[in-house]
Amino acid sequence: MTDESARKPVETSAELPGGLPERQFGWWDVFVAPEDDPRGGELVRGEHAILVGYLRNQRLTLEMKCAGLDAAALARRSVPPSNLSLLGLVRHMAMVEQNWFRRVMAGESVVRHYRTEASPNEEFDGAVPDPEAVAEAFGRWRDEVAFAERFVAEARDLYVTGVDHGRPVELREVLVHMIEEYSRHNGHADFLRERIDGRVGQ
């Protein structure tokens, strides 16, 4: 395969027999072409920069998996019997960001996004195919990410400590946990997106 042909998206039909979307790649055998990938590939040094860079890329990956889809597709529970959807994952990660950076690290008293005792899975169960619900979810998620990024940028070092249910937690641990959390859910997002329109992850 020549370099020029590798840059062209694979042409596919919309669906395979049985209603399943045909697998397709955005570029060669990956999700997007390198020049369209917002995730940094540059080499960084030092623990702080490495942790921040990996977390940034995981956040961008979730956003990429949702790109180009309408409200119905984002809310679609495309891998039954799971109640997961791409919109549900965005709502869930808004809640996770809020919990670890506002509540645990900053010590704020917060009303948890989406989750209540009466509706413990509301972030997923309440993900509905409504453009306003999509805008609200992405708005909350981006606000929480912005707060987290400010907190990390202003922290004196990775030993800054918060409290989670009486247990001291270092910022270093939170960053590692957030990378783990996004990585796990981005794996879910790969399958959800592929089942929606056949777009294969990377």
From TrEMBL:
For this protein, the record's SUPFAM superfamilies field holds: DinB/YfiT-like putative metalloenzymes
Superkingdom field = Bacteria
An example of a Pfam family matching this protein is MST
- Give the InterPro entries listed for this entry: DinB/YfiT-like, MST-like
List the protein's name.
DinB family protein
